[in-house]
Write a structure and sequence with these properties.
Helix content is about 65%, strand content about 5%. With about 600 residues, it is mainly α.
Length: about 600
Protein backbone atom coordinates (compact mmCIF):
# COMPACT_ATOMS: atom_id res chain seq x y z
CA UNK A 1 0.00 0.00 0.00
CA UNK A 2 2.86 2.36 0.82
CA UNK A 3 4.41 1.76 -2.59
CA UNK A 4 1.10 2.59 -4.25
CA UNK A 5 0.94 5.89 -2.36
CA UNK A 6 4.59 6.75 -2.83
CA UNK A 7 4.78 6.22 -6.58
CA UNK A 8 1.87 8.55 -7.47
CA UNK A 9 3.37 11.21 -5.20
CA UNK A 10 6.77 10.86 -6.84
CA UNK A 11 5.50 10.61 -10.42
CA UNK A 12 2.78 13.24 -10.02
CA UNK A 13 5.01 15.74 -8.22
CA UNK A 14 7.92 15.40 -10.64
CA UNK A 15 5.65 15.31 -13.70
CA UNK A 16 3.81 18.53 -12.85
CA UNK A 17 7.12 20.12 -11.78
CA UNK A 18 8.59 19.22 -15.18
CA UNK A 19 5.72 20.82 -17.08
CA UNK A 20 5.53 24.00 -15.01
CA UNK A 21 9.31 24.28 -14.64
CA UNK A 22 9.69 24.04 -18.41
CA UNK A 23 6.95 26.63 -18.90
CA UNK A 24 8.68 28.98 -16.44
CA UNK A 25 12.02 28.53 -18.18
CA UNK A 26 10.48 29.22 -21.60
CA UNK A 27 9.03 32.48 -20.30
CA UNK A 28 12.41 33.60 -18.95
CA UNK A 29 11.64 32.87 -15.28
CA UNK A 30 13.51 30.64 -12.86
CA UNK A 31 12.27 27.02 -12.94
CA UNK A 32 11.94 27.30 -9.14
CA UNK A 33 8.74 29.28 -9.76
CA UNK A 34 7.35 26.32 -11.72
CA UNK A 35 8.34 23.87 -8.98
CA UNK A 36 6.58 25.92 -6.30
CA UNK A 37 3.47 26.21 -8.47
CA UNK A 38 3.59 22.46 -9.07
CA UNK A 39 3.52 21.94 -5.29
CA UNK A 40 0.42 24.09 -5.06
CA UNK A 41 -1.22 22.14 -7.94
CA UNK A 42 -0.66 18.74 -6.26
CA UNK A 43 -1.27 20.12 -2.76
CA UNK A 44 -4.40 19.96 -0.62
CA UNK A 45 -5.38 23.59 -1.38
CA UNK A 46 -6.14 22.90 -5.05
CA UNK A 47 -8.66 20.55 -6.70
CA UNK A 48 -7.70 17.35 -8.48
CA UNK A 49 -4.79 15.06 -7.68
CA UNK A 50 -3.45 15.46 -4.13
CA UNK A 51 0.03 14.09 -3.38
CA UNK A 52 0.91 12.51 -0.05
CA UNK A 53 2.55 15.37 1.83
CA UNK A 54 4.25 13.04 4.34
CA UNK A 55 6.09 11.16 1.61
CA UNK A 56 6.86 14.43 -0.17
CA UNK A 57 8.41 15.83 3.01
CA UNK A 58 10.54 12.71 3.54
CA UNK A 59 11.82 12.85 -0.02
CA UNK A 60 12.35 16.59 0.35
CA UNK A 61 14.49 15.99 3.44
CA UNK A 62 16.74 13.78 1.34
CA UNK A 63 16.83 16.60 -1.20
CA UNK A 64 17.98 19.05 1.48
CA UNK A 65 20.82 16.72 2.51
CA UNK A 66 21.98 16.29 -1.10
CA UNK A 67 21.55 20.01 -1.75
CA UNK A 68 23.76 20.88 1.23
CA UNK A 69 26.29 18.26 0.15
CA UNK A 70 26.42 19.99 -3.24
CA UNK A 71 26.92 23.38 -1.56
CA UNK A 72 29.89 21.98 0.36
CA UNK A 73 31.19 20.27 -2.77
CA UNK A 74 31.36 23.59 -4.62
CA UNK A 75 32.61 25.58 -1.63
CA UNK A 76 35.62 27.44 -3.02
CA UNK A 77 38.02 29.03 -0.54
CA UNK A 78 40.06 30.46 -3.42
CA UNK A 79 36.98 32.26 -4.79
CA UNK A 80 36.26 33.65 -1.32
CA UNK A 81 39.90 34.66 -0.74
CA UNK A 82 39.92 36.59 -4.01
CA UNK A 83 37.20 38.99 -2.79
CA UNK A 84 37.49 38.49 0.98
CA UNK A 85 37.98 42.19 1.74
CA UNK A 86 34.55 42.92 0.32
CA UNK A 87 32.54 39.69 0.54
CA UNK A 88 33.29 38.77 4.15
CA UNK A 89 32.51 42.08 5.92
CA UNK A 90 29.85 43.01 3.36
CA UNK A 91 27.88 39.76 3.55
CA UNK A 92 28.20 39.59 7.34
CA UNK A 93 26.90 43.13 7.88
CA UNK A 94 24.18 42.81 5.24
CA UNK A 95 22.93 39.53 6.70
CA UNK A 96 22.91 40.91 10.24
CA UNK A 97 21.01 44.02 9.11
CA UNK A 98 18.47 41.95 7.16
CA UNK A 99 17.98 39.59 10.09
CA UNK A 100 17.49 42.55 12.43
CA UNK A 101 14.91 44.23 10.19
CA UNK A 102 13.10 40.94 9.58
CA UNK A 103 13.10 40.27 13.33
CA UNK A 104 11.65 43.71 14.00
CA UNK A 105 9.02 43.31 11.29
CA UNK A 106 7.81 39.96 12.64
CA UNK A 107 7.89 41.25 16.24
CA UNK A 108 5.64 44.15 15.27
CA UNK A 109 2.93 41.59 14.42
CA UNK A 110 3.11 40.06 17.89
CA UNK A 111 5.17 37.01 16.97
CA UNK A 112 7.29 35.28 19.61
CA UNK A 113 11.00 36.04 19.80
CA UNK A 114 11.88 32.61 18.42
CA UNK A 115 9.45 32.97 15.51
CA UNK A 116 10.67 36.50 14.74
CA UNK A 117 14.29 35.29 14.76
CA UNK A 118 13.49 32.38 12.42
CA UNK A 119 11.62 34.75 10.09
CA UNK A 120 14.50 37.24 10.11
CA UNK A 121 16.96 34.49 9.22
CA UNK A 122 14.71 33.22 6.40
CA UNK A 123 14.61 36.62 4.65
CA UNK A 124 18.33 37.40 5.01
CA UNK A 125 19.86 35.04 2.42
CA UNK A 126 19.67 35.30 -1.36
CA UNK A 127 19.20 32.31 -3.64
CA UNK A 128 22.49 30.98 -5.00
CA UNK A 129 20.63 29.23 -7.82
CA UNK A 130 18.83 32.40 -8.94
CA UNK A 131 21.85 34.72 -8.62
CA UNK A 132 24.06 32.34 -10.61
CA UNK A 133 21.41 32.01 -13.31
CA UNK A 134 20.83 35.79 -13.48
CA UNK A 135 24.54 36.62 -13.77
CA UNK A 136 25.10 33.88 -16.34
CA UNK A 137 22.25 35.16 -18.49
CA UNK A 138 23.74 38.68 -18.39
CA UNK A 139 27.24 37.30 -19.22
CA UNK A 140 28.62 38.67 -15.93
CA UNK A 141 29.40 35.42 -14.11
CA UNK A 142 33.10 35.48 -15.11
CA UNK A 143 33.48 39.22 -14.48
CA UNK A 144 34.46 40.99 -11.29
CA UNK A 145 30.75 41.37 -10.55
CA UNK A 146 30.39 37.60 -10.73
CA UNK A 147 33.40 36.97 -8.50
CA UNK A 148 32.16 39.41 -5.86
CA UNK A 149 28.61 38.02 -5.97
CA UNK A 150 29.86 34.42 -5.68
CA UNK A 151 32.09 35.32 -2.73
CA UNK A 152 29.16 37.12 -1.10
CA UNK A 153 26.95 34.05 -1.57
CA UNK A 154 29.61 31.74 -0.12
CA UNK A 155 29.62 33.78 3.10
CA UNK A 156 25.81 33.77 3.13
CA UNK A 157 25.79 30.00 2.65
CA UNK A 158 28.09 29.56 5.63
CA UNK A 159 25.88 31.81 7.75
CA UNK A 160 22.79 29.88 6.62
CA UNK A 161 24.41 26.58 7.59
CA UNK A 162 25.25 28.07 10.99
CA UNK A 163 21.64 29.24 11.35
CA UNK A 164 20.38 25.74 10.56
CA UNK A 165 22.56 24.38 13.35
CA UNK A 166 21.68 26.98 15.97
CA UNK A 167 17.95 27.36 15.31
CA UNK A 168 16.98 24.12 17.12
CA UNK A 169 18.94 25.34 20.15
CA UNK A 170 16.54 28.25 20.71
CA UNK A 171 13.35 26.25 20.28
CA UNK A 172 13.12 24.63 23.73
CA UNK A 173 9.91 26.45 24.55
CA UNK A 174 11.38 28.20 27.58
CA UNK A 175 11.42 31.96 28.08
CA UNK A 176 13.88 33.59 25.72
CA UNK A 177 16.67 35.06 27.84
CA UNK A 178 20.12 36.26 26.86
CA UNK A 179 21.82 33.98 29.39
CA UNK A 180 19.99 30.90 28.10
CA UNK A 181 20.79 31.94 24.53
CA UNK A 182 24.49 32.13 25.41
CA UNK A 183 24.34 28.70 27.08
CA UNK A 184 22.67 26.91 24.20
CA UNK A 185 24.96 28.60 21.71
CA UNK A 186 28.00 27.52 23.72
CA UNK A 187 26.82 23.90 23.86
CA UNK A 188 26.02 23.98 20.16
CA UNK A 189 29.44 25.46 19.41
CA UNK A 190 31.16 22.61 21.26
CA UNK A 191 29.15 20.00 19.34
CA UNK A 192 29.79 21.73 16.04
CA UNK A 193 33.51 22.01 16.80
CA UNK A 194 33.73 18.30 17.62
CA UNK A 195 31.91 17.37 14.41
CA UNK A 196 34.07 19.67 12.30
CA UNK A 197 37.26 18.22 13.79
CA UNK A 198 36.07 14.66 13.20
CA UNK A 199 34.96 15.21 9.61
CA UNK A 200 37.65 17.59 8.38
CA UNK A 201 40.64 15.89 9.99
CA UNK A 202 39.68 12.22 10.18
CA UNK A 203 37.35 12.29 7.20
CA UNK A 204 39.85 14.22 5.07
CA UNK A 205 42.16 11.18 5.22
CA UNK A 206 39.56 8.42 5.27
CA UNK A 207 37.00 9.58 2.70
CA UNK A 208 39.40 10.22 -0.25
CA UNK A 209 41.03 6.86 0.46
CA UNK A 210 37.66 5.11 0.29
CA UNK A 211 36.75 6.90 -2.94
CA UNK A 212 40.12 6.04 -4.47
CA UNK A 213 39.69 2.32 -3.76
CA UNK A 214 36.19 2.41 -5.22
CA UNK A 215 37.36 4.38 -8.27
CA UNK A 216 39.96 1.69 -8.99
CA UNK A 217 37.10 -0.75 -9.69
CA UNK A 218 36.21 1.40 -12.77
CA UNK A 219 32.53 0.94 -11.79
CA UNK A 220 30.48 4.12 -12.10
CA UNK A 221 27.64 2.60 -10.06
CA UNK A 222 29.91 1.78 -7.12
CA UNK A 223 31.42 5.26 -7.19
CA UNK A 224 27.96 6.86 -7.21
CA UNK A 225 26.89 4.63 -4.33
CA UNK A 226 30.01 5.44 -2.31
CA UNK A 227 29.48 9.20 -2.61
CA UNK A 228 25.84 8.89 -1.55
CA UNK A 229 26.81 6.72 1.42
CA UNK A 230 29.39 9.31 2.49
CA UNK A 231 26.89 12.17 2.24
CA UNK A 232 23.99 10.42 3.96
CA UNK A 233 26.18 8.64 6.51
CA UNK A 234 27.87 11.80 7.78
CA UNK A 235 24.50 13.61 7.78
CA UNK A 236 22.99 10.92 10.02
CA UNK A 237 26.14 10.86 12.18
CA UNK A 238 25.86 14.58 12.81
CA UNK A 239 22.19 14.30 13.81
CA UNK A 240 22.27 11.14 15.93
CA UNK A 241 25.63 11.42 17.69
CA UNK A 242 26.27 15.16 17.82
CA UNK A 243 22.71 16.42 18.02
CA UNK A 244 23.20 19.01 15.25
CA UNK A 245 21.52 19.49 11.90
CA UNK A 246 21.95 16.87 9.19
CA UNK A 247 22.49 19.81 6.85
CA UNK A 248 25.79 20.65 8.58
CA UNK A 249 27.03 17.07 8.32
CA UNK A 250 26.15 16.92 4.63
CA UNK A 251 27.82 20.29 4.05
CA UNK A 252 31.03 19.18 5.78
CA UNK A 253 31.04 15.91 3.84
CA UNK A 254 30.76 17.95 0.64
CA UNK A 255 33.64 20.19 1.70
CA UNK A 256 35.89 17.16 2.36
CA UNK A 257 35.07 15.52 -0.98
CA UNK A 258 35.34 18.91 -2.70
CA UNK A 259 38.93 19.35 -1.51
CA UNK A 260 39.93 15.97 -2.96
CA UNK A 261 40.72 15.12 -6.55
CA UNK A 262 37.32 13.39 -6.82
CA UNK A 263 35.31 16.61 -6.40
CA UNK A 264 34.47 17.11 -10.06
CA UNK A 265 33.65 13.46 -10.65
CA UNK A 266 31.39 13.42 -7.60
CA UNK A 267 29.58 16.52 -8.83
CA UNK A 268 29.07 15.28 -12.39
CA UNK A 269 28.51 11.55 -11.89
CA UNK A 270 27.39 10.81 -8.35
CA UNK A 271 24.81 13.54 -7.78
CA UNK A 272 22.54 13.61 -10.85
CA UNK A 273 19.64 12.64 -8.57
CA UNK A 274 20.34 15.63 -6.31
CA UNK A 275 18.47 17.94 -8.65
CA UNK A 276 15.43 15.65 -8.74
CA UNK A 277 15.19 15.52 -4.94
CA UNK A 278 15.84 19.26 -4.73
CA UNK A 279 12.84 19.72 -7.05
CA UNK A 280 10.75 17.62 -4.65
CA UNK A 281 11.84 19.94 -1.85
CA UNK A 282 10.43 22.96 -3.69
CA UNK A 283 7.31 20.97 -4.55
CA UNK A 284 6.81 20.11 -0.87
CA UNK A 285 7.12 23.80 0.01
CA UNK A 286 4.55 24.72 -2.62
CA UNK A 287 2.15 22.13 -1.17
CA UNK A 288 2.01 24.17 2.04
CA UNK A 289 0.95 27.34 0.23
CA UNK A 290 -2.56 28.57 1.07
CA UNK A 291 -3.74 31.56 -1.03
CA UNK A 292 -6.53 32.42 1.46
CA UNK A 293 -4.02 32.89 4.28
CA UNK A 294 -1.92 34.95 1.88
CA UNK A 295 -4.83 37.32 1.25
CA UNK A 296 -5.29 37.79 4.98
CA UNK A 297 -1.54 38.58 5.32
CA UNK A 298 -1.23 40.90 2.33
CA UNK A 299 0.21 43.69 4.47
CA UNK A 300 2.99 41.48 5.81
CA UNK A 301 3.74 40.17 2.30
CA UNK A 302 4.18 43.69 0.93
CA UNK A 303 6.44 44.76 3.81
CA UNK A 304 8.53 41.60 3.54
CA UNK A 305 8.84 42.15 -0.21
CA UNK A 306 10.13 45.68 0.44
CA UNK A 307 12.65 44.23 2.91
CA UNK A 308 13.91 41.64 0.40
CA UNK A 309 13.88 43.70 -2.79
CA UNK A 310 14.61 47.21 -1.50
CA UNK A 311 16.27 47.16 1.92
CA UNK A 312 18.69 44.26 1.30
CA UNK A 313 19.96 45.64 -2.05
CA UNK A 314 20.16 49.15 -0.60
CA UNK A 315 22.20 48.13 2.46
CA UNK A 316 24.40 45.96 0.20
CA UNK A 317 24.93 48.89 -2.16
CA UNK A 318 25.97 51.21 0.66
CA UNK A 319 28.35 48.63 2.14
CA UNK A 320 30.05 47.97 -1.21
CA UNK A 321 30.45 51.70 -1.85
CA UNK A 322 31.84 52.30 1.65
CA UNK A 323 34.36 49.52 1.09
CA UNK A 324 35.73 51.42 -1.90
CA UNK A 325 34.22 49.71 -4.94
CA UNK A 326 32.78 51.51 -8.00
CA UNK A 327 29.13 52.39 -8.40
CA UNK A 328 28.33 50.17 -11.38
CA UNK A 329 29.80 47.08 -9.73
CA UNK A 330 28.02 47.89 -6.46
CA UNK A 331 24.67 48.22 -8.23
CA UNK A 332 25.12 44.96 -10.17
CA UNK A 333 25.98 42.94 -7.06
CA UNK A 334 23.38 44.61 -4.82
CA UNK A 335 20.48 44.19 -7.24
CA UNK A 336 21.36 40.54 -7.83
CA UNK A 337 20.79 39.88 -4.10
CA UNK A 338 17.20 41.13 -4.11
CA UNK A 339 15.39 37.79 -3.71
CA UNK A 340 15.17 34.78 -1.41
CA UNK A 341 15.22 31.12 -2.33
CA UNK A 342 16.34 27.67 -1.27
CA UNK A 343 17.91 28.51 2.09
CA UNK A 344 14.87 30.56 3.07
CA UNK A 345 12.67 27.53 2.49
CA UNK A 346 15.06 25.20 4.30
CA UNK A 347 15.13 27.48 7.36
CA UNK A 348 11.36 28.02 7.27
CA UNK A 349 10.75 24.28 6.88
CA UNK A 350 12.94 23.66 9.93
CA UNK A 351 10.99 26.34 11.81
CA UNK A 352 7.74 24.56 10.98
CA UNK A 353 9.04 21.21 12.22
CA UNK A 354 10.24 22.83 15.44
CA UNK A 355 6.82 24.52 15.91
CA UNK A 356 8.49 27.94 15.83
CA UNK A 357 6.94 29.27 12.62
CA UNK A 358 3.28 29.10 11.64
CA UNK A 359 1.77 28.13 8.30
CA UNK A 360 1.08 31.84 7.76
CA UNK A 361 4.80 32.60 7.90
CA UNK A 362 5.55 29.88 5.34
CA UNK A 363 2.84 31.24 3.01
CA UNK A 364 4.32 34.72 3.29
CA UNK A 365 7.82 33.45 2.51
CA UNK A 366 6.62 31.39 -0.47
CA UNK A 367 4.76 34.38 -1.91
CA UNK A 368 7.71 36.73 -1.41
CA UNK A 369 10.11 34.20 -2.92
CA UNK A 370 7.95 33.67 -6.00
CA UNK A 371 7.52 37.41 -6.62
CA UNK A 372 11.15 38.32 -5.97
CA UNK A 373 12.51 35.45 -8.10
CA UNK A 374 10.23 36.50 -10.97
CA UNK A 375 11.45 40.10 -10.79
CA UNK A 376 15.13 39.32 -10.11
CA UNK A 377 16.26 39.01 -13.78
CA UNK A 378 14.55 42.30 -14.58
CA UNK A 379 16.48 44.21 -11.90
CA UNK A 380 19.78 43.70 -13.76
CA UNK A 381 18.33 45.66 -16.67
CA UNK A 382 18.23 48.72 -14.43
CA UNK A 383 21.92 48.73 -13.52
CA UNK A 384 23.13 51.06 -16.29
CA UNK A 385 20.18 53.52 -16.12
CA UNK A 386 20.47 53.68 -12.33
CA UNK A 387 24.23 54.22 -12.51
CA UNK A 388 23.79 57.09 -14.98
CA UNK A 389 20.98 58.64 -12.93
CA UNK A 390 22.89 58.45 -9.63
CA UNK A 391 26.08 59.82 -11.18
CA UNK A 392 24.16 62.88 -12.39
CA UNK A 393 22.70 63.71 -8.99
CA UNK A 394 23.90 67.02 -7.46
CA UNK A 395 26.91 66.48 -5.24
CA UNK A 396 27.36 62.85 -6.35
CA UNK A 397 30.90 63.41 -7.65
CA UNK A 398 31.92 65.13 -4.41
CA UNK A 399 30.50 62.24 -2.40
CA UNK A 400 32.34 59.73 -4.59
CA UNK A 401 35.59 61.62 -4.09
CA UNK A 402 35.04 61.64 -0.32
CA UNK A 403 34.20 57.93 -0.39
CA UNK A 404 37.45 57.16 -2.23
CA UNK A 405 39.40 59.27 0.23
CA UNK A 406 37.93 57.61 3.33
CA UNK A 407 37.12 54.14 2.01
CA UNK A 408 38.12 51.12 4.07
CA UNK A 409 39.62 49.44 1.04
CA UNK A 410 41.60 50.75 -1.92
CA UNK A 411 39.41 51.61 -4.87
CA UNK A 412 39.33 49.17 -7.72
CA UNK A 413 38.57 49.61 -11.37
CA UNK A 414 35.07 48.95 -12.56
CA UNK A 415 35.36 45.61 -14.27
CA UNK A 416 31.73 44.78 -14.76
CA UNK A 417 32.32 43.47 -18.26
CA UNK A 418 33.35 39.83 -18.65
CA UNK A 419 37.05 39.22 -18.16
CA UNK A 420 39.21 38.45 -21.16
CA UNK A 421 41.01 35.13 -21.25
CA UNK A 422 44.30 34.84 -19.38
CA UNK A 423 47.40 36.05 -21.14
CA UNK A 424 48.92 33.43 -23.39
CA UNK A 425 47.36 30.71 -25.46
CA UNK A 426 45.31 28.18 -23.46
CA UNK A 427 44.22 24.79 -24.69
CA UNK A 428 42.36 21.82 -23.23
CA UNK A 429 43.46 18.27 -24.08
CA UNK A 430 41.15 15.29 -23.54
CA UNK A 431 43.11 12.15 -22.72
CA UNK A 432 46.72 11.59 -21.66
CA UNK A 433 47.74 8.63 -23.75
CA UNK A 434 50.86 8.69 -25.94
CA UNK A 435 49.31 11.26 -28.29
CA UNK A 436 48.02 13.44 -25.48
CA UNK A 437 51.39 13.35 -23.70
CA UNK A 438 53.27 14.33 -26.87
CA UNK A 439 50.89 17.17 -27.71
CA UNK A 440 50.94 18.52 -24.14
CA UNK A 441 54.76 18.47 -24.02
CA UNK A 442 55.10 20.26 -27.36
CA UNK A 443 52.56 22.90 -26.38
CA UNK A 444 54.26 23.53 -23.02
CA UNK A 445 57.68 23.83 -24.68
CA UNK A 446 56.25 26.59 -26.88
CA UNK A 447 54.70 28.59 -24.07
CA UNK A 448 51.13 27.27 -24.43
CA UNK A 449 49.32 26.33 -21.22
CA UNK A 450 47.62 22.90 -21.55
CA UNK A 451 44.92 21.57 -19.23
CA UNK A 452 44.41 17.80 -19.33
CA UNK A 453 41.02 16.14 -18.79
CA UNK A 454 41.58 12.55 -17.72
CA UNK A 455 39.05 9.92 -16.66
CA UNK A 456 41.53 7.52 -15.07
CA UNK A 457 42.52 8.82 -11.62
CA UNK A 458 45.71 6.72 -11.72
CA UNK A 459 47.08 9.07 -14.41
CA UNK A 460 46.38 12.27 -12.49
CA UNK A 461 49.56 12.18 -10.40
CA UNK A 462 51.61 11.52 -13.56
CA UNK A 463 50.02 14.53 -15.27
CA UNK A 464 50.72 16.83 -12.33
CA UNK A 465 54.29 15.55 -11.97
CA UNK A 466 54.80 16.53 -15.61
CA UNK A 467 53.79 20.07 -14.64
CA UNK A 468 50.37 20.18 -16.29
CA UNK A 469 47.02 21.17 -14.82
CA UNK A 470 44.85 18.06 -14.44
CA UNK A 471 41.07 17.72 -14.21
CA UNK A 472 39.70 14.34 -13.13
CA UNK A 473 36.32 13.77 -14.72
CA UNK A 474 34.27 12.74 -17.72
CA UNK A 475 34.68 15.22 -20.59
CA UNK A 476 31.13 14.50 -21.75
CA UNK A 477 29.78 16.42 -18.73
CA UNK A 478 29.45 20.17 -19.19
CA UNK A 479 30.69 20.84 -15.65
CA UNK A 480 33.95 19.01 -16.42
CA UNK A 481 34.52 21.14 -19.52
CA UNK A 482 33.74 24.31 -17.57
CA UNK A 483 36.12 23.31 -14.77
CA UNK A 484 38.86 22.69 -17.33
CA UNK A 485 38.38 26.20 -18.71
CA UNK A 486 36.90 25.45 -22.13
CA UNK A 487 34.90 28.67 -21.97
CA UNK A 488 38.11 30.76 -21.95
CA UNK A 489 40.38 28.52 -24.05
CA UNK A 490 41.45 28.98 -27.63
CA UNK A 491 41.50 25.30 -28.57
CA UNK A 492 40.21 21.88 -27.55
CA UNK A 493 42.09 18.74 -28.59
CA UNK A 494 40.50 15.27 -28.52
CA UNK A 495 43.73 13.27 -28.37
CA UNK A 496 42.14 9.83 -27.97
CA UNK A 497 40.92 8.11 -31.10
CA UNK A 498 37.23 7.35 -31.57
CA UNK A 499 36.03 8.68 -28.21
CA UNK A 500 32.52 7.30 -27.51
CA UNK A 501 30.02 10.13 -27.76
CA UNK A 502 32.57 12.47 -29.37
CA UNK A 503 29.88 14.18 -31.45
CA UNK A 504 27.88 15.25 -28.39
CA UNK A 505 31.09 16.29 -26.61
CA UNK A 506 31.98 18.56 -29.53
CA UNK A 507 28.49 20.09 -29.54
CA UNK A 508 28.65 20.87 -25.81
CA UNK A 509 32.12 22.42 -26.15
CA UNK A 510 30.96 24.50 -29.12
CA UNK A 511 27.95 25.75 -27.11
CA UNK A 512 30.23 26.75 -24.23
CA UNK A 513 32.68 28.57 -26.48
CA UNK A 514 31.55 29.23 -30.07
CA UNK A 515 34.99 30.63 -30.97
CA UNK A 516 37.07 27.68 -29.73
CA UNK A 517 39.10 25.72 -32.29
CA UNK A 518 38.30 22.01 -31.93
CA UNK A 519 40.85 19.47 -33.16
CA UNK A 520 39.72 15.84 -33.08
CA UNK A 521 41.37 12.51 -33.68
CA UNK A 522 39.62 9.44 -35.05
CA UNK A 523 40.59 6.03 -36.33
CA UNK A 524 38.79 5.96 -39.66
CA UNK A 525 38.39 8.46 -42.48
CA UNK A 526 34.64 7.71 -42.72
CA UNK A 527 34.18 9.31 -39.26
CA UNK A 528 35.78 12.63 -40.27
CA UNK A 529 32.69 14.05 -41.98
CA UNK A 530 30.45 13.32 -38.97
CA UNK A 531 32.80 15.05 -36.52
CA UNK A 532 33.24 18.03 -38.84
CA UNK A 533 29.48 18.39 -39.22
CA UNK A 534 29.09 18.40 -35.42
CA UNK A 535 31.52 21.31 -35.00
CA UNK A 536 35.10 20.03 -35.19
CA UNK A 537 37.41 22.39 -37.12
CA UNK A 538 40.07 19.80 -38.00
CA UNK A 539 39.93 16.01 -37.81
CA UNK A 540 42.99 13.76 -38.08
CA UNK A 541 42.17 10.18 -39.06
CA UNK A 542 44.54 7.35 -38.22
CA UNK A 543 44.10 5.79 -41.66
CA UNK A 544 45.00 9.04 -43.39
CA UNK A 545 48.09 9.72 -41.28
CA UNK A 546 49.37 6.18 -41.84
CA UNK A 547 48.81 6.60 -45.58
CA UNK A 548 50.79 9.86 -45.55
CA UNK A 549 53.64 8.27 -43.59
CA UNK A 550 53.81 5.30 -45.98
CA UNK A 551 53.74 7.58 -49.03
CA UNK A 552 56.58 9.71 -47.66
CA UNK A 553 58.65 6.60 -46.94
CA UNK A 554 58.13 5.22 -50.43
CA UNK A 555 58.94 8.54 -52.13
CA UNK A 556 62.04 9.03 -50.01
CA UNK A 557 63.16 5.44 -50.78
CA UNK A 558 62.72 6.12 -54.50
CA UNK A 559 64.98 9.17 -54.27
CA UNK A 560 62.33 11.91 -54.60
CA UNK A 561 63.51 15.47 -54.03
CA UNK A 562 62.14 17.48 -51.04
CA UNK A 563 60.09 19.59 -53.50
CA UNK A 564 58.55 16.48 -55.04
CA UNK A 565 57.76 15.05 -51.60
CA UNK A 566 56.13 18.29 -50.49
CA UNK A 567 54.04 18.43 -53.67
CA UNK A 568 52.88 14.82 -53.44
CA UNK A 569 52.22 15.14 -49.70
CA UNK A 570 49.95 18.13 -50.27
CA UNK A 571 48.13 16.34 -53.11
CA UNK A 572 47.56 13.27 -50.97
CA UNK A 573 46.44 15.32 -47.97
CA UNK A 574 44.06 17.35 -50.13
CA UNK A 575 42.57 14.14 -51.48
CA UNK A 576 42.10 12.75 -48.01
CA UNK A 577 40.42 15.92 -46.75
CA UNK A 578 38.22 16.20 -49.84
CA UNK A 579 37.02 12.62 -49.41
CA UNK A 580 38.42 11.46 -52.73
CA UNK A 581 40.20 8.64 -50.89
CA UNK A 582 37.63 6.64 -48.95
CA UNK A 583 37.64 3.67 -46.67
CA UNK A 584 35.01 1.15 -45.76
CA UNK A 585 36.36 0.54 -42.28
CA UNK A 586 39.01 -1.70 -40.75
CA UNK A 587 40.75 -4.30 -42.83
CA UNK A 588 39.46 -7.85 -42.38
CA UNK A 589 43.05 -8.85 -41.77
Amino acid sequence: MEQIELLPTLAGGLGIALLLGYAAHRTGLSPIIGYLLAGFVVGPQSPGFVANIEYANQLAELGVVLLMFGVGLHFDLHELARVRRLAVPGALLQSLCSVAVGFGLASSYGWSVEAALAFGLAVAFASTVVVTRTLADSHALQSQVGHVAMGWLIVQDLLAVLALVLLPSVSTGESFELQRLFEVFSIAAVKIGALIILVTFVGAKLIPSILQHVAETRSRELFTLSVLVVALGIALLSANFFGVSMALGAFLAGVVVGQSEFSLRAATEALPMRDAFAVLFFVSVGMLFDPLVLWNSLDLVCKTLLLVMVFTPLISLLLILILGYPLRLALSVALSLGQIGEFSFILANLGLRLNILSAEAMDVLVAVAMISICLSPLTQLGVNPLARTISRLPGCRSLMAMRRAFSLSPAVHDDSQPETPLEGFRTVIIGFGPVGQTVARLLAENGIEPTIIEMNHLNISQIREAGFRAVLGDAHHIETLKHAGVENSESLILSASSIPGATELIRVARDLNPKIKIIARTSYLRERETLTRCGADTVFAGEGEVALALAEFILRDLGATPEQMDREREKLRAGLLAGEIRTGGPSPL
